[in-house]
Design a protein that fits this description.
Blueprint (H helix, E strand, L loop, with lengths): L2 H39 L4 E4 L3 H14 L11 E3 L4 H10 L7 H7 L5 E5 L6 H12 L3 E7 L14 E5 L4 H24 L2
Parallel strand pairs: 1-2, 1-3, 3-4, 4-5
Length: 195
Amino acid sequence: MNFHDRIAQQFSQHLETTQNSLLRLSDRLEAAAFRLAQCLLNDGKILCCGNGGSAAEALHFSSELLNRYERDRPGLPAIALTTDLSAITSIANDYQFDEIFAKPIRALGQSGDVLVIYTTSGNSANLLKAAGAAHDRDMTILAISGRDGGPLAPLLRESDLELRVPSESTARIQEVHLLMTHCLCDLIDVQLFGE
């Protein structure tokens, strides 16, 4: 296969995954945006975490909320737990890597807050411990996932939400995660600040 064909294949797979996600997840995406907006209206905050590319997406989401999405508006309380290298490395060193998100959630999370977990597989031990810590703090979880949801999916409670991209490809899952993140930002802004 030549390079042009490989490029066309990537675009085709992206479009197929995006369309399948739209058909399967639009209602859940709307529900997730409503839940996040309610959290913010009730003086709650949004904590975000993930590993690798998902860590970058957690940072992306929190920065869109803290600063702005597509319009000037007041900043919204969101914290990416992936950004504090001193905390992450000290927790990993003094305890274990599995605790790098759970420990800050126990310190910062409160009832009514939402933990947004970005993961392509749902397999990472540190995210599973983060989910447990969030539940211990009476927080809601929004899992933005892929594949079969992994061991994270059965940990979710009825009050939690999952946006699971119907794909096995990490690249396709992460591409749709970005699109869903932008949808969430748009819907939050519309609910809080109008059209």
